[in-house]
Design brief:
The complex is a heterodimer of chains A (422) and B (64). With 422 residues, chain A is an alpha/beta fold. In chain A, 45% of the residues lie in helices and 21% in strands. In chain A, helix 2 crosses helix 3 and helix 4 packs parallel to helix 8. The longest helix of chain A is centred in the C-terminal third of the chain and has 95 residues. Chain A starts with 7 loop residues before the first helix and ends in a 13-residue tail after the last strand. Classes of the chains: A alpha/beta (422), B mainly alpha (64).
């Protein structure tokens, strides 16, 4: 060892001394987790970094430790409060003391974490993702796909071991309305950092037989709130916005809505709610059919009523018109009949008068009637005697009277002048 | 005398012709009596026919 030189341990002991003197106690430090692993004894070892907000270049890097006694308490507290696991990419506000060990070097001994900082950071990151999706103009694209009227063929993305998947299937199969659904499971990891890749792969598979499905249901249930953070992943959300089938999510949390929920066509709180939503869609369709049926029935009824009213009016009109017609015809007939009767009566009168005239004339020429009035007729040899000179004395004359005849003998005859001729 | 099947118009025509002959006065007494008898008979036929026709017409008009 040369004069004036120090051994490594000497100088590092010096560093440790200076650090202990210059940076005593604890400090609240902001840092991002680059790597994190727990060892078998329950200690947590971290790589902490700081990046430039402008260009992401590395500004600082240091080791950190959370001893098992603290870690066993801090980890659940943090995860519950921050809604995320302690993992790579998380930003922390932690209380740490500066430690330096000649053998192990520099490290920060973390004794406390303020989860509200991480919470704020994650919220900011989530807003960042949302802002980016909006800028890309894709935020509502999946919502804009017309939702099928009868969503009956469901592609389910879930983990077959997940409790939520069981709940979903149970509700779908035993829905109280007896609707039939066809479901096919496309298995995917539903928690941890592999979620985006795994869900995307499942969507890719569904896409291959897209025409066989009406919609996609992403189902997750029973996980902790900390598992939800991965569903704010930009690339996963983006992939869903570009998917040609409507996506329904049942991955949410009672209070929190992930970005995936926000871009999905429909987001429900639980897998059971997804099943109920689908059943409701079918029920609504059934109601719609029933309403259409009623509408049809009432339309038909109205048409029949209108037709019936029209027929009734026609019937009245017909009755009215035909009555008028028959009345007019009847009057005409009556008149014709009167004319005929008058004509007949005229003819009969004329005939009767004619006959009467003929009778009178007959009366006048009937010799019987002349005889009745006291005249008589004298015949000679059966012929009427018109001239006295035709009769000679001694001729037998026959005198015809009204009642009977007289036979006599002529003695004297007088001519027109009354002078005796014989 | 059995009723003749003579038409009304023919009967009237015969009556008129016969009357004209009688009225002209160139008929003998026996013929005259016979013709008057004939005319009287024809007149009766015509009267009956007219009466029956009237009854028939009345009946038909009453029925309608």
């Amino acid at each position: 060892m040369s004069e004036g030189s120090l051994s490594l341990s000497d100088i590092l002991q010096q560093v440790k001394k200076v650090l202990g003197k210059e940076l005593p106690g604890s400090y609240w430090i902001v840092a991002e987790i680059l790597e994190l692993h727990e060892n078998r004894n329950g200690h947590c070892y971290l790589e902490l970094i700081e990046k430039s907000p402008e260009n992401d270049t590395l500004l600082a890097r240091a080791k950190g430790t959370i001893w098992a006694s603290r870690y066993s308490m801090l980890r659940p507290f943090f995860e519950t409060a921050a809604g995320t696991k302690l993992k790579s990419g998380i930003k922390l506000l932690c209380k740490a003391s500066v430690e330096f060990h000649p053998q192990y070097g520099f490290s920060l001994n973390i004794t406390d974490i303020d989860p509200s900082y991480t919470l704020g950071d994650l919220a900011r990151k989530k807003q960042e993702v949302i802002r980016k999706l909006r800028e890309e103009g894709v935020m509502d694209m999946n919502k804009e796909i017309p939702f099928p009227a009868v969503p009956q063929r469901i592609a389910v993305i879930s983990s077959d071991s997940a409790a939520g998947y069981g709940d979903f299937m149970e509700s779908i199969r035993n829905n109280s309305h007896g609707f039939q659904f066809y479901t096919r499971l496309f298995p995917s990891v539903m928690q941890g950092d592999d979620v985006p890749g795994s869900v995307t792969a499942a969507l890719d598979k569904i896409f291959e037989s897209e025409s066989e499905f009406d919609c996609v249901a992403i189902i997750r249930g029973g996980g902790s709130k900390a598992d939800l953070e991965i569903f704010n992943h930009h690339d996963l959300a983006y992939f869903i916005t570009q998917f040609p089938l409507p996506v329904i999510t049942g991955i949410g949390h009672e209070r929190d809505e992930s970005v995936v929920d926000m871009v999905a066509a429909h987001s429900l709180k639980t897998p059971t709610a997804v099943a109920e939503f689908l059943v409701d869609q079918l029920l609504a369709f059934e109601f719609q059919l029933s309403a259409l049926h009623d509408q049809l029935a009432s339309s038909v009824k109205r048409i029949v009523q209108v037709g019936s009213t029209m027929l009734e009016r026609f019937r009245g009109d017909l009755k009215h018109f035909s009555k008028g017609y028959t009345e007019r015809r009847s009057e005409q007939l009556q008149q014709t009949r009167l004319l005929m009767e008058r004509g007949i009566s005229g003819i009969m009168t004329r005939k009767r008068d004619h006959l009467t005239l003929l009778e009178t004339r007959t009366e006048l020429v009937n010799p019987h009637n002349i005889l009745k009035r006291g005249y008589s007729m004298t015949l000679l040899k059966g012929k009427a005697i018109l001239k006295s000179e035709d009769v000679k004395p001694g001729d037998m004359l026959e005198t015809r009277l009204y009642d009977g005849k007289i036979m006599s003998k002529a003695e004297i005859t007088n001519g027109k002048d009354g002078k005796r001729k014989n | 005398m059995a009723k003749e099947k003579i038409s009304y118009d023919d009967a009237v025509k015969e009556i008129e012709t016969t009357l004209e002959k009688i009225e002209a006065g160139d008929l003998g007494v026996d013929e005259l009596a016979e013709k008057v008898g004939r005319v009287t008979e024809l007149l009766k036929i015509c009267r009956d026919r007219l009466h029956k026709t009237e009854e028939q017409i009345d009946k038909i008009l009453d029925e309608s």
